[in-house]
């Protein structure tokens, strides 16, 4: 993924307000935007505490994307989202989720996923900006969508050799993107107690069915 290198915005303002996914699941602030962007499409369909999760998309329309970005300080006053910008944002999210759905050791060797991500990433160039009393950081280039900050956070994870910890839940009824904080870093599910146990139970039942045929 090719990026021009640029920096700084008040990160605290971006995440202020009502509790969001990053706060709920105690995701570090430096990857909060990336985490919430990836999970802005919620594909969970399992039952939890007697209620079924209903899949939803926070960015379903240009208006909803605009509201989502405005809540996170990613739009300037008066700036709006066009249908083309909305379509590109969804392409970015899809490319990122497809990339993270792969096992960490298979991501770089998947031509289809890397090419898709590289193709959409070119519309979100980053540059290095140095602000007084702060370290240099990657930020969206001048005139570029604030969503480019999503790629800056992805890049920071990769530079810190932590990108392998960002994964998609293997459960076919979940697909939530999560940070693997286990010591060995080998988790497959966002929750071993919920998704892990459910998936193991489904796999077991399927094996029994196939055995009895």
Q: What does the model show?
A:
- The protein is α+β, with helices and mostly antiparallel strands and 213 residues long.
- The protein has one domain (11-212): Jann2411-like fold, CATH 1.10.3300.
- 41% of the residues lie in helices and 10% in strands.
- It has 8 helices and 8 strands; from the N terminus they run H-H-H-E-E-E-E-H-H-H-E-E-H-E-E-H.
- It has helices at 11-14, 21-24, 32-38, 62-71, 83-101, 111-121, 148-159, 192-212, and strands at residues 41-42, 47-48, 51-52, 56-57, 126-129, 137-140, 166-168, 177-179.
- The protein has a two-stranded antiparallel ribbon.
- Helix 5 packs antiparallel against helix 6.
- The longest helix is centred in the C-terminal third of the chain and has 21 residues, at 192-212.
- The termini are far apart.
- The model is unreliable at 1-18 (pLDDT under 50).
Please summarize what this structure is.
This protein has 213 residues and is an alpha+beta fold. Helix content is 41%, strand content 10%.
